[in-house]
Amino acid sequence: MADPSSPTPETTAAPAVSRRRLFAGAGTAGALAATAVALPLVPVAPPVAATDPAPQSQGGGYRLSAHVQRYYQTAKV
């Protein structure tokens, strides 16, 4: 008689993949493939450029914009 604690070829082999896991993996792979194919077909809206207000009729060279104010805040000592 064989010792029950000794490893047998049946207990040391890698577990077999069940049918349920096989179909779940195939379904996941199919869903990923479909997403990869459909993703480039989604239209992308072009970026909208921010417009600056119209320049003033006189002068109009220097404006105290948000960018300039941020610079003055960071340049304070």
Distance between the termini: 90 Å
The level of helicity is 40-55%
How large is the count of helical segments? Answer: 3
Largest sheet, described in full? Answer: none
Order of helices and strands: HHH
Radius of gyration, taken over Cα atoms and rounded to an integer in Å = 34 Å
Overall strand count: 0
- Beta percentage is under 5%
Low-confidence stretches: none
Main structural class:
mainly alpha
| Average pLDDT number | 76
Which helices and strands appear, and what pairs or packs with what?
Layout: H1 9-12, H2 19-38, H3 66-75
Task: Give a nutshell description of this structure.
This protein is mainly α and 77 residues long.
Verbal overview:
The chain has helices spanning about 10, 20-40, 65-75. The chain is mainly α and about 80 residues long. It starts with 8 loop residues before the first helix and ends with a helix.
